[in-house]
């Protein structure tokens, strides 16, 4: 990685240096192998500055969102190994990474998991919807009705937001809960 450009990420750097560093990371995001450079920097702990590590995770995140699923199996496995190696390194050494870096790492780990196991996400969502249908959908519908009834003539923004929520649920709840005399009035 371009060490001279990375100096722009330091807090004391001037605006020109910071802009150069950000432009460099944008280039890494768009480069087919930029994620490999950033992954290598993370697992070899080449940079002590947490801003550099954060931006490296952002490059990995961008790769996962845009290219991971269509990557060849070797590159997919290489990315998993990078993440696992970084995690092992965190467990085996005393690291006091700041929360923003831990959060970004957790976000990248979650994203790779969802990409690699999409049927787990669909299954989870179905279970959540089934549980809502079984336990509290009627209470939700009653609360929507009360919101619409209370604010229909006074606060149109609340009414519109409530209708947006109903629209998100209507596909998978019993239509009879909404399409009835109570709501139509």
Low-confidence stretches: none
SS strand fraction: under 5%
What is the arithmetic mean of pLDDT?
88
Q: Give helix % range.
A: over 70%
- Count of extended strands: 0
Instruction: Summarize the helix and strand pattern as letters.
Output: HHHHHHHHHH
Number of helices: 10
By secondary-structure content and strand pairing, the structural class works out as mainly alpha
Give the termini separation: 65 Å
* Shape by Cα distribution: elongated
Structure description:
With 185 residues, the protein is mostly helical. 75% of the residues lie in helices and 0% in strands. The relative contact order is 0.07.
Note the topology.
Layout: H1 3-6, H2 15-30, H3 34-43, H4 50-68, H5 73-92, H6 99-116, H7 118-135, H8 137-151, H9 156-169, H10 181-184
Helix pairs in contact: 2-3, 2-4, 3-4, 3-5, 4-6, 8-9
Q: What does this entry show, briefly?
A:
This protein is mostly helical and about 180 residues long.
For the structure shown, list the relevant keywords.
mainly alpha; 10 helices; 75% helix
């Amino acid at each position: 990685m371009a060490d001279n450009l990375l100096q722009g990420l330091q807090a004391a750097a001037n605006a020109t240096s910071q802009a150069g560093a950000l432009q460099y990371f944008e280039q890494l995001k768009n480069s087919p192998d930029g994620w490999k450079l950033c992954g290598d920097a993370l697992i070899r702990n080449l940079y002590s500055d947490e801003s550099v590590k954060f931006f490296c995770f952002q490059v990995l995140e961008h790769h996962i969102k845009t290219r991971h699923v269509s990557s060849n199996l070797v590159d997919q496995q290489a990315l998993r190994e990078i993440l696992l190696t970084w995690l092992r390194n965190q467990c085996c050494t005393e690291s006091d990474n700041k929360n923003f870096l831990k959060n970004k790492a957790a976000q990248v780990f979650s994203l790779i998991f969802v990409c690699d196991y999409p049927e787990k996400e669909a299954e989870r969502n179905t279970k959540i919807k089934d549980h809502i249908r079984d336990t509290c959908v009627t209470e939700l519908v009653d609360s929507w009705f009360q919101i619409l009834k209370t604010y229909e003539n006074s606060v149109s923004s609340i009414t519109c937001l409530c209708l947006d929520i109903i629209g998100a649920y209507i596909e998978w709840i019993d239509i009879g809960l909404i399409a009835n005399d109570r709501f139509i009035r």
